[in-house]
Design brief:
Length: 238
Amino acid sequence: MAANRNTQFRLAANALITVLPGWWHAGSMGLVIRLLELMLVLVPLIGAAYAAFRGVTALRARQTAELPQAADPAAAQRRAIGRAIEEHDRTDTRWLEYELDVAKLLDCPLMTDLRDPLTERFHRAKLRADFLRPGGIADLVDDRDATRDYLNAVQEYVTAFDIAEAEALRRRRADFTPAEQERLARAQRLLRVAADSAATPQERQRAYRLARRELDGLVVLPDGARVALERGISGELD
């Protein structure tokens, strides 16, 4: 193959010599051959480079066309705020179970014990999230700083609640002495009577008063649970 290529080079050079003016001399034969060799090498390379360039350009054009349009920043912000509000509501619902279900609360009394750092952190985080909560998504869309503050507050609220609840479930009544645990058990039984619509109003009132006495100094009933019990018994207690 190399011999054929050299032969082609020499034939092309001889043809070039025959058409050149008389000032051409045979000593230039080597230079012509080298120029032809260089051209035969460079032309395919240039063609390949051009083809590669066109291929890359076409690929980039296809990729650009296939890329989804950039999301509307305002729409993304609205979705983030909406998700935060939903998470806020879910955590409120989980806490409401302790506020309204006294039996559940007495199984995990740590959830209302603000002397515990984890419980105190949860209640503080809830207050901040509630304070920063918007009336609606539109209230925060034009305020990036307020949006960031609210999203962070909800994340802290959810995290703090999860940690406090996990610790309350783990410890349950273990922090109380045997005598205090007996008082909690008696209060739990009395509160069941107080919430029993089949019992007489007098029985329910008496059970509620005795339960409050047993819980005094041990567990603070949330306002929601206390109000629900009192309204359920007679609407108003002395």
